[in-house]
């Protein structure tokens, strides 16, 4: 657009960004011949691309797999193990999500017996009996 003779302000309005951004990109293009962003320093990735692919494909095969399971079984190449949070981060980068386990109380035999007993004792209750307890109108 800029090489076609479009003014900097018009281009900034067209792509909906600040005029300084367009000026900076134009100057960077003159100096280097490209507008690509420069690489930045940062913490290096703990996982290799192969480990990322492994976690991605394992979650695509099993949608209900937890990140902790994937972290535990991922083959370690450069490091001894990876954390579940790292797996979650890599899945999020790939547009996937790890499954969260359902947390609920385990029903024991005693719980089932008590539930069955309650159901048997209340089986013949009428609507009037339930209205006394639930205050239905």
TrEMBL record:
One of its GO terms (molecular function) is DNA binding. Residues 27-50 are annotated as: Disordered. InterPro entries: Homeodomain-like_sf, Transposase_Tc1-like. One of its GO terms (biological process) is DNA integration. Residues 65-123 form the Transposase Tc1-like domain. Pfam families: HTH_Tnp_Tc3_2. It comes from the Eukaryota. This is Transposable element Tc1 transposase. It comes from Salmo salar (Atlantic salmon).
């Amino acid at each position: 657009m800029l090489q076609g003779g479009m003014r900097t302000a018009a281009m900034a309005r067209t792509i909906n960004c600040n005029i300084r951004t367009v000026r900076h990109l134009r100057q960077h293009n003159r100096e280097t011949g490209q507008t690509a962003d420069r690489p930045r320093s940062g913490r290096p990735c703990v996982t290799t691309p192969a480990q990322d692919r492994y976690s991605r494909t394992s979650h695509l095969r099993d949608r209900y797999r937890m990140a902790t399971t994937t972290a535990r079984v991922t083959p370690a190449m450069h490091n001894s193990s990876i954390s579940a949070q790292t797996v979650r981060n890599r899945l999020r980068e790939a547009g996937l999500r790890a499954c969260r386990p359902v947390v609920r109380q385990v029903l024991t035999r005693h719980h089932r017996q008590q539930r069955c007993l309650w159901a048997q004792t209340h089986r013949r209750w009428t609507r009037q009996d339930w209205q006394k307890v639930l205050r239905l109108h």
